Amino acid sequence: MANWVAHSLIDGIRSESGLDAEHLPAGATPGRPVSQPLAAQAAARMAAICPGGAIAARGDAVGVDFVHCVHCQRCRRPDGDLAWREDAQWGAWRDAASNPLPHRFRHSVNVRYLDAGACGACMGEVRLIDAPPYNLHRYGIFVTATPRDADVLLVAGPVTEAMRLPLRKTYEAMPEPKRVVAMGVCAINGGVFGRSFASIGGAGDVVPVDLVIAGCPPPPLAIAHGLLLAAGQLQPGRGSDALEP
Ligand code: SF4
Ligand code: SF4
């Protein structure tokens, strides 16, 4: 313990700044494309190259529906024509009726994460939220192994046929009140896997989704942003622009 304190004093704080900090270190998040003015020809070109159907040309502007963005980066300058925002505010409420957990959960939230068929990258990012650089414990957010203790269900990946029942049972085993967070494009709408004989699409087809965290995969700070929204530690609206009109 004494060593740990000494190291902290000598080396300084190693965790990332809180999400309320204006500055994010370069590379902490890859950023995300946003709606912006753009010449009509370039706007049409960007819409045409987007594999996720996230970009819509609207005259002299583009609209970005970030929920459909698979982060291929084709639209990003200098190869593409779009400027990106380099923040970690990627979480957004599913609709106007969604709301955070009650106030008593503000500093004590247990999260059960469930791999419903993810490629591996989303789960790799989730595992980092407890690591020292991100340290979500400091906000009172903990990972639990059992749905009986969980307040938030964090789902990653398209839902495979094999995981449809486990996802449903996990949700039903959780006590009220509870919130469901779909993490990554696949959990939101099936992503690049879509619907097939093996995949039924997004988590919303099985359980009621309250909040989405866009990205493919979302980086740890983006996941933290979504979980803090679910816990009510960030006020609605802080991340609402993650869903561009
Ligand atoms: S980064 Fe996203 S918005 Fe841009 S082209 Fe790829 S899928 Fe489309
Ligand atoms: S959203 Fe992207 S990273 Fe996450 S499971 Fe789907 S393909 Fe993999």
Report on the architecture of this protein.
The protein has six helices and eleven strands. With 245 residues, the protein is of the alpha/beta class. The chain folds into two domains: 32-85, Alpha-Beta Plaits (2-Layer Sandwich); 91-236, Rossmann fold, CATH 3.40.50. The strands form three sheets. A six-stranded mixed beta sheet has the order 6-11-10-9-7-8, with helices on both faces. Strands 2-4-3 form a three-stranded antiparallel beta sheet, covered by helices on one side. It has a two-stranded antiparallel sheet with strand order 1-5. Strand 10 (179-183), helix 5 and strand 11 (211-213) form a beta-alpha-beta unit. The longest helix has 13 residues, at 161-173. The radius of gyration is 19 Å and the shape is globular. The model is unreliable at 238-245 (pLDDT under 50). The structure holds iron/sulfur cluster (2 copies).
